[in-house]
Specification:
38% helix; 316 residues; homotrimer; alpha/beta; 14% strand; Rossmann fold; 2 domains
Chain lengths: 316, 316, 316
């Protein structure tokens, strides 16, 4: 599959593995399709038969109730059969290799694998391995990518801000360990956002992050000036306890989003968060529940975006 | 929602949280509706499309395979999509608050939450918090309430004894820690049962239990005299091991239901138990499997009652 | 039920518990029915309504993601409602007996139980206990039987070799602890295979295994001579660590299937394995992935065979 591991030879989406290198036309196609599904989830009867008779396997090598649930709901609303496999406790422990496991599930005539794995590249590995009738969706691999999260974020921005080409966007928090941030930066860049900022302490930034085309800030006062969109990141508990941070109180003081800091952004700026939130660590409750927060709408859009990705893949 | 936290402004059932204060007309409506579903589960094709396109979330913060299964079956027979969430191992452990979790699931366009929690009031808290399009069913909260269990018990009594207003009912066992007993007492009272007895050692009775309108007995010989219905309670293992009881042998000797003790009740008395049973602790196998036992029919009625509650909620 | 615990009084399949004593006509009926489903799983829409409205309970007292998944897929493709019960962590731990658990699930109007248990005879016990409207499928009990695995193996052999009555078949590995091997031997015998060989070290063979009508070999060089079908067994990790074997390297040297050893068999011999494979222990990767391996097709046939068994049971 060469340069574009996620496209088929007609240039259509075969797998969704990363937002990096995803053509802008496909990005727009996903967002437009999601727009039509955003209505479905608000209708009284939420089921549509697009994936009827298809089998979607949730392969979660790393536990995540929330993300697994959103994919399960999306697939069921498309009338697919969903098989949840908690791979952390399954035949992996019987000594079988990852690819033997995948071969076996493929032989059960799976149509789609939704893969979460703590190792970067796991979804790519599986996608390279399966036959052309199977589609792989990366639901988060190590620190690498989480494309459906980034896509639902793009959907949210488009809903509230329309034109990507006039925006100043800030991503705030633990960029270093965040697959969400990487996927957001690639998607924002492709969609033509002229100014992407990252705001984080040095210990939570990847080396040479500027190469991704972002502007680096180490303090909120400068970084939030006149931004249209604030994308908060979740601070992982393991980071809090490690040498990366002095304390969560310190972190909140400098990088926690308070009403005061939010006032530095444009008055109509929106606040986003991928969840689950650490209130009082990366975000103040007053902001999380405030009028500029679009955190809960994001969740609903997440279902629509995942339905869109699944239905596009199933059609290609 | 004021006095009736589970009714909407038209006086219809919005949530099912407790049998306390539940209007008698609604109680009868649930039992009548369940009667129609009791037939469905015996039909060859058990599916009816009343909840098609609806999403029912089982939120079990406390594990219970049996109760979760009955709700899952009830929802699937109504054609709903069911999402099982084992909340004990999910994002709660990631530090998210209960209400943030509920907000997130609501944003996924849930229609119904079935909630089990080891803290009294958890289902009420969630019900007060969600929007009007979401219905909450309490599947057991702490020592407080377990309304669907009480409703299936009422359904069972009505099936075998018809008129509630002519009955003498005894509830036997660990009343103190039992959400089932509390919900039974409220339902029996509302349905007009003239004499409700509780039979238990003093250490397993709540303070001032008489205020609930029940007659208190500390021995079976007196308590079982001429009763029509015997509602046994499960003795929790943790109680057996605590200071509340000398030993399970002692308990069985004084409060275990044996064929001899059962003869003190009316000759056509029925024996009920919410399960799972501790044979040889609160009930003798000869009684559990005997001709007066309606313990297994209770289970089937439980599906019908849960289908009734779900379909009534979905229609309001 | 007497001589044939799995047949009803009309001689039809009421339960599938073992391949031992299963009449050859029923064996062929299952294989023929599976043939029609093997097509379904390759069709675009895989769902057929044969079990619509039926409730299939997966009762797994022993964890097995893979086997549970194949039954779940088979049932869903037949449009059944599937309830997965991880019995290892459910009310069994609350002190309820196995038969009380089964009684309760039966009272929920279950139609089919798929049972896996680490004790031989568990599925038989349940089958003897349930009413005539419930069908039990043994998904593996102790060292005793695993009939659907054996049936999918027979289906595989028939696909590639057509006539059972002209075959030399070798079963290789830990026969002693293998319910798969026992079920294979009974099925092969009934289907008229004239020569069944078992190849294993003495410590991994049951006492007096010849009574089953098999020829015993202790080395591959003699045992593989001119065979048509090689049925490898999985070497359980617990055996590797026990006194039964010196080391996995030793085992591989003598009993591991390598390309060299495979050349002793007929040139068109097929290689089978029930999975999950221990590459480099009982089988070399070159053989597992080689042109004579039919290990992956076996998995797909497993879905078709399980659909066949379920639909035949539901019709009787």
């Amino acid at each position: 599959m060469g340069v574009h591991p996620q496209l088929n030879k007609n240039g259509e989406l075969q797998h969704l593995l990363t937002t990096e290198g995803l053509p802008v036309a496909i990005l727009h196609h996903i967002l437009d399709t999601a727009e039509s599904f955003a209505g479905v989830t608000e209708r009284d009867v939420k089921k549509i038969p697009l994936l009827r008779g298809k089998s979607v396997f949730n392969l979660f090598f790393e536990p995540s109730t929330r993300t697994r649930t959103t994919f399960e709901i999306a697939a069921k609303r498309l009338s697919a059969d969903v098989i949840n496999l908690n791979m952390a406790v399954s035949s992996q422990t019987k000594g079988e290799t990852l690819l033997d496991t995948v071969n076996n599930l493929s032989a059960m005539h799976a149509d789609m694998f939704v893969v979460r794995h703590n190792q970067s590249g796991a979804a790519h590995l599986i996608a390279r391995h399966v036959g052309p009738e199977i589609h792989v969706i990366n639901a988060g691999d190590g620190w690498h990518a989480h494309p459906t999260q980034a896509l639902l974020d793009m959907f949210t921005i488009r809903r509230y801000k329309q034109d990507f080409r006039a925006l100043r966007v800030a991503i705030i928090g633990d960029i270093l360990h965040s697959r969400v941030a990487r996927s957001q930066i690639h998607a924002l860049t492709t969609l033509g956002v002229p100014e992407i900022r990252v705001i984080a302490p040095k210990t939570l930034l990847p080396a040479r992050v500027e190469r991704l085309g972002v502007h680096v800030y180490h303090n909120m006062t400068q970084g939030l000036q006149d931004v249209d969109v604030l994308m908060m990141l979740r601070l992982q508990h393991e980071r809090m306890e490690s040498a990366h941070l002095p304390s969560t109180e310190e972190y909140f003081k400098y990088y926690g989003l308070t009403p005061e800091k939010l006032m530095l952004a444009k008055s109509d700026a929106i606040v986003m968060h991928p969840g689950p939130m650490n209130r009082g660590v990366e975000i103040d409750s007053e902001v999380a529940d405030g009028s500029q927060s679009v955190i809960l709408p994001q969740v609903g859009f997440g279902i629509a975006v995942r339905m869109a990705v699944m239905s596009i893949l199933a059609g290609n």
